[in-house]
Inverse folding.
């Protein structure tokens, strides 16, 4: 079975990207934190060139939303959430009663046609040229 795979991912918009600042108190560490993210659009097709196997495809929109605290005494932290949702009319159909009829591809989403997950959570410590990230 010959497979041809196409993937196109477009970063549509960067929400914000700022450099983390050094602050003078633990409270300021969170007040001066940064929010950033991306919105992405992608399409994925598997063209099997085989009449016994169905071609599958999916188009999805999603992205990332991230918060990173400012640095206080070399300590900072961050979290990021990732999400992806298939676009119904631009994605293959899913037949739950007969999986052999499926034209939906889960490469960019999931069996449920979407996902949202905590993709990053970390604490960062920096001093001089030493950097330690745990998470």
């Amino acid at each position: 079975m010959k497979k041809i795979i196409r993937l196109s991912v477009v970063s549509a918009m960067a929400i914000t990207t700022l450099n983390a600042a050094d602050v003078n108190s633990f409270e300021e560490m969170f007040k001066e934190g940064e929010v950033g993210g991306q919105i992405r659009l992608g399409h994925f097709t598997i063209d099997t060139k085989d009449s016994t196997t169905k071609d599958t495809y999916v188009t999805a929109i999603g992205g990332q939303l991230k918060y990173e605290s400012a640095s206080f005494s070399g300590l900072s932290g961050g979290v990021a959430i990732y999400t992806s949702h298939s676009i119904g009319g631009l994605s293959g159909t899913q037949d739950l009663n007969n999986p052999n009829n499926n034209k939906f591809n889960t490469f960019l989403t999931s069996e449920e046609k979407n996902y949202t997950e905590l993709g990053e959570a970390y604490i960062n410590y920096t001093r001089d040229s030493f950097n330690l990230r745990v998470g």
